[in-house]
Amino acid sequence: MMINVMENTLVLLKPDAVQRKLCGEIISRFERKGLSLVALKLLTLTPAIAASHYEEHLDKPFYPSLVSFITSGPVVAIVLRGPNAIKAVRTMMGPTNPENAPPGTIRGDYATVMSNNIIHGSDSVISAQREIAIYFTEHELVQ
Question: Which domains does the chain have, with CATH numbers?
């Protein structure tokens, strides 16, 4: 039996989602699922913000291209709240590699290559707390 735990999670709509004008469609999917918007902003990430966000990938060979892509244009940072929000968002996003993402998932419907995979979602409660704090102050979260 799954216990419904109210959670906040961070979602980033990456530069490819913004450029392709998919933000409204993606946000509406989350709202139709029953998740609530707690915070939302459009911003262009600096290399410092990207480094903070992707700190766990710092030593990986793909890190420079990751930072280059995420800082290449505006992103939409969103905090969503709802029962088991982290798992719900990750299920709706689909696998990181769009080639493995089934139709009906965000990546399955809109992404084509792993380097431009439309969306990021926190993978745990700890990650969500850390990532939300990168983009939003406590005062910016609507309760």
Answer: 6-140 (3.30.70.141)
